[in-house]
Amino acid sequence: MTPSLVFIAAVQLLLLLLAVSVHGAAQAWMAALCGDPTASGLGGTSLNPLRHFDVVGSLLFPALLLAFGFPVYGWGRPLPVVDANLRRAGWDGILVALAGPAANLLLSGAAVVVLAVSVHSLGGEARQAALGSLIYSPGAEKLAAFPVMFLLVRMAATNIFVAAFQLVPLPPLDGGQIALRLLPPDWAERLVATRPYGFIIGVPAGLALSLLLAVPFYGLLAVVINLS
């Protein structure tokens, strides 16, 4: 493996760890705000990656995606939320579930803004490096601006894919937690029955969703880069 490929793989795994840490910390913070200090008491509001690291979801599975050239996403260690502690169990539960994907979308948006400003400030070489970061182009890694542009492009993409995966409407994913609180009781009961298989179904569903999102999202980034 060449040094450039090592850099590309390492950056994407570190960015995923950042994404799942922000995701988990946002949910722990929202749970505490809504009356349940359980997760925050366990250090869940910390951005320390060790608090949120999951061997399978934060390392092995994303490494497998990288090896096969798929968009990178994953998950962190689940944090406990005690519904009985929430002031309004239904509505507050939805807010807690939404907090993680919302934080990822905000981080992605911030990366896009910084990317646009950086390309505009640094000029043509930065634009070339940014476009080369979307779809790997041989020689792009030799450009001086490539490390920064690659970091920003992948930060934007990774957080989008993590948010999309978590919004798949299957428990124990965030989308499933939201669906359980919004569906009629009989439908919610049927959805609860899928919980043991949630990840088994959700992981390939997330992969399909990330592949569907990749083309339009990278296309949007290309427009932003070219207009900056």
Describe the fold and architecture.
By secondary structure, the protein is mainly alpha-helical. About 70% of the residues lie in helices and about 0% in strands. The chain has helices spanning about 5-35, 40, 50, 55-65, 90-120, 125-135, 145-165, 175-180, 185-190, 200-225. The radius of gyration is 19 Å and the shape is elongated.
Task: State the main characteristics.
72% helix, mainly alpha, 10 helices, 228 residues, elongated, 0% strand, single chain
Number of helical regions:
10
Residue windows where pLDDT falls under 50 for at least 5 positions: none
Strand content: under 5%
Would you tell me the structural class of the helices and strands?
A: mainly alpha
Q: In total, how many beta strands?
A: 0
* Radius of gyration of CA atoms, rounded to a whole number: 19 Å
C-alpha geometry: elongated
- End-to-end gap: 34 Å
Helix amount, in percent? over 70%
How does the major sheet shape up?
none
**Helix and strand sequence:** HHHHHHHHHH
> How confident is the prediction overall: mean pLDDT?
91
